[in-house]
Amino acid sequence: MKWDEFFVTGEPMIYAAMASIVVVSLAIPIALTYFKKWNWLWTNWLTTVDHKKIGVMYILAALLMLFRGGVDALLMRAQTAIPDNGLLDGQHYNEIFTTHGVIMILFMAMPFIIGLMNVVIPLQIGARDVAFPRLNAVSFWLFFAGAMLFNISFVIGGSPDAGWSAYFPLASLEFSPTVGNNYYAIALQIAGIGTLLTGINFLVTILKMRAPGMTLMKMPMFTWSVLITNVIIVFAFPVLTVALALMTLDRQFGTQFFAMQNGGMDMLWANLFWVWGHPEVYIVILPAFGIYSEIISAFARKNLYGYKSMVVSMVAISLLSFVVWVHHFYTMGHGVMVNSVFSITTMAIAIPTGVKIFNWLFTLRKGKISFTTPMMYALAFIPIFTIGGVTGVMLAMASADYQYHNTMFLVAHFHYVLIPGTVFAVIAGFHFWFPKVFGFRLNERLGKWAFWFIAVSFNVTFFPLFILGLNGMTRRMYTYSESTGYGALNMLSMVGALGLTVGFIILVYNIYYSVRYSPRDTNGDPWDARSLEWSTHSPVPEYNFALIPTVDRLDAHWFSKKEGKPLTSGKYEPIHMPNNSGVPVIMGAAFFFWGFFMVFSWWIPAIVFGVVILGTLAYRTFEKDHGHYISVEEIERTENALRGEQHEN
């Protein structure tokens, strides 16, 4: 392979990206060396098995990916802002919309959700950690290895270019001979294995580690949503793993599972992808519903209306999510009967979703509403998501979908579901639980400025796409003539995209500003909230709870405050906690290099790093690591210090 085939060349933006990668890659080790932080980084973060720190790392990675995917989005909007634009050529545009979709779904939304899950779930159920702390660290480093491997494709080898769904035969070696779709297959496999491990870990954690007295029907709604989500993960992600393995075999070993000849079947890929892909939408939506439920009940000062119906509706959504995937194929030659069956199941999923909308509205009714930043996102979500849901029912009608399917109308619907349904939710959850982890709130004024920019600009960006779609503008159209009349609405959409950029910049600036200037005045429960995570200190000590709380009803923390009855009793005892370990980060690095060499079919170094991966597994098998105990004296010192700091502030 020649150097100009290995490195992507020819465009100023690519050279700028390469330069920035080199600068950052040099700046980080120089800064760590100058400030003597290598040991701190290794001890406190790279080797940690603390669920809270792992959650923070997931969220930081998600924010990084938000801006990476956001740059792709801006480039797409800039390219289509005016007719006959030459900013990007067709190939570059294909690569950008492919990477935008993959990054935003799998490397932004998923890790943000999993990060909040890591931070909150053990605290909400009164546990001291997840069931398998070491496995939790492995999950993060596999996700991170997959994300980094996918992201280097745009400067080394070339990005995937067959769309985020990578349909065959377009993604085959015949039509996509570069290594871009090898990156897709390998990176998503590595990250997907990490997500599957997370699903298993949190299922066991929620089912086996709840506080005494916390039955399933006394769990907070966010915990319920995560439980159901992880059931979906455990059933859906093995399908993706198998599909990607077959894709790898087709592209790199000459098999023809998805070929159009010799017994292959290109529609097999489409079916496998969407058998995973449509449940994946609910993997990122259901936890968002749980986040909104927590926030709306907390800031309406009311218990969640219709708790049981919320649980039933989420279970119904999880079941229906596996029987709607064929609505992606209405226009691909299925008969009337198949289309009708899946049209009915697709419309049926709107019923439990609608139930939840009414639950939230009735929770708000007669509530003493506090218009905090998290609540603003929750309130904006309801009408905007409803537009996404109604247009989804339009798309569910098979006959109508023949007109809508390949147009910008579908793109607008998709974003009207996922941005208010997931992005608004994770930002709201980020603001809501931030003081739990760090001991201070994000600035409310800056938070609301960011909210208004994001909420208004979102509609300015995506509502014009509904009209463009109805006027006939197709998806993936990278250029168009002035005679189409698409220019004005596309330019309006570009203005909205710039507004979204401003909103997200304010959000990041808010983190910096709050770290420097926000008062450290929290008492562990700055929002006067309802669930168990607010009953411990902020920031949370390593062991979460010095004494495990006992739960006798839903919203036990709320009633404990109102009735003056403590949730804990008894004396301190030594607490067993897991030790940090460098094995997960080493395994993640080995997976990264194994994946990189697999992408280029460099078999010998790939085998070497495959052996390293097996070596880390063998090391763990024979390792004698029984964790450590936190003594009663240390617990008392920690508790007194936390109470003293809070009293002093």
UniProtKB/TrEMBL annotation:
Catalytic activity: 2 a quinol + O2 = 2 a quinone + 2 H2O
Cell membrane found in the keyword field: yes
Enzyme class: oxidoreductase
Membrane topology of this protein: Multi-pass membrane protein
Cofactor(s) required for function per UniProt: Cu cation; ferriheme a
Primary subcellular site in the record, as a coarse category: membrane
Residue ranges constituting the Cytochrome oxidase subunit I profile domain according to the UniProt record: 34-552
Keywords annotated in UniProt: Cell membrane, Copper, Electron transport, Heme, Hydrogen ion transport, Ion transport, Iron, Membrane, Metal-binding, Oxidoreductase, Respiratory chain, Transmembrane, Transmembrane helix, Transport
Keyword Plastid assigned: no
Listed EC numbers: 1.10.3.-
Pathway: Energy metabolism; oxidative phosphorylation
Record's subcellular location: Cell membrane
CDD domains associated with the record: Ubiquinol_Oxidase_I (cd01662)
TM stretches of this protein: 12-35, 56-76, 96-123, 135-156, 183-204, 224-247, 311-330, 342-364, 376-398, 410-434, 446-468, 488-512, 581-597, 603-622
UniProt remark on cofactor binding: Binds a copper B center.
Family, per entry: Belongs to the heme-copper respiratory oxidase family.
Role played: Catalyzes quinol oxidation with the concomitant reduction of oxygen to water.
Protein name: Quinol oxidase subunit 1
Organism (species): Sporosarcina gallistercoris
Lineage, uppermost ranks: Bacteria, Bacillati, Bacillota, Bacilli, Bacillales
Annotated gene: qoxB
